[in-house]
Amino acid sequence: MTTTRPDAVISATALRTLLDSGADVVLLDIRRDADRGLRHEYEAGHLPGAHYVEHSTQLAGVRTPESGKNPLPTDDQIQAAVTGWGIHPSSTVVVYTRGAAPPATRAWWVLTWAGVPDVRYLDGGLDAWTAAGGELTTDEPAPGGGTFQVRTGSLPTIDADEAGALARSGLLLDARPREAYLGDAEQPGQGHIPGAVSVPYSDNLDEDGLLRNDESLRALYAGHGVDGIAPLGLYCGGGVGATTGILVLHRLGIPAALYPGSWTQWSADPTRPVATGTEPG
């Protein structure tokens, strides 16, 4: 039995209403790569009160040769971040980014995995906020004194062995762009986990970067064999893009596990099989 969870996503209009109500709202501006000058973009204008979040240091752990690109943060790491952002048990946490959805959906996933009870993805991100008449600021909030105590493990994960088995016994979705899934039989390390089905994370979005409506998304996943009953997992290149699909499925009431190591971990082990082409393999 599935249960719809509309609170996983918030529109820009609904966020403005929530802020106007005086609710305890913590805003997090998620940036993927500090080396590309994204801190400068944040400083140039962000939602009032939003904390700057650097994905690779706050939403991912230390990478090792065996971990994949974006391993999960440690309990201490995510606890320090939650405290610094001022998250309390009563807080509604809203995560957003500018541009592609995955950095923000990764933040939604990590915080929900850490047990934060009310985390919402701002549909359309910063651009949707300004389009709805929302203002931006260059002021930065002071570090908070959050009191929420994290409880990691609140969302399911699978490891490499479990992902390989799930591709055969249940359903494993590959959220990378289609070209990455197809791979090249002549190029070692390219392709997909044998048995995995291609559903690029971008298929969840419309041309404006907003999530497609629930009816369309249900049809998308039903067309790939998702029935809400069979065990389901998702992976991508480094454990980020797949969280967009998991967010959508969570909202639709369909549980799905994340393979955090994803393709960068799987393909780093030459003993693991690889399939190429259009068929799951």
From TrEMBL:
Which keywords does this Swiss-Prot/TrEMBL entry list? Answer: Repeat
**InterPro entries with a match to the protein in the record:** Rhodanese-like_dom (IPR001763), Rhodanese-like_dom_sf (IPR036873), Thiosulfate_sulfurtransferase (IPR051126), Thiosulphate_STrfase_CS (IPR001307)
SMART domains, per this entry?
RHOD (SM00450)
Give the main EC class. Answer: transferase
The superkingdom listed in its UniProt entry is: Bacteria
Which Pfam families does the annotation name? Rhodanese
Reported EC number(s) for this entry are: 2.8.1.1
Stretches assigned to the Rhodanese domain: 21-138, 166-275
Recorded catalytic reaction(s): these are:
thiosulfate + hydrogen cyanide = thiocyanate + sulfite + 2 H(+)
Protein name, entry field: thiosulfate sulfurtransferase
Natural source organism: Dactylosporangium fulvum
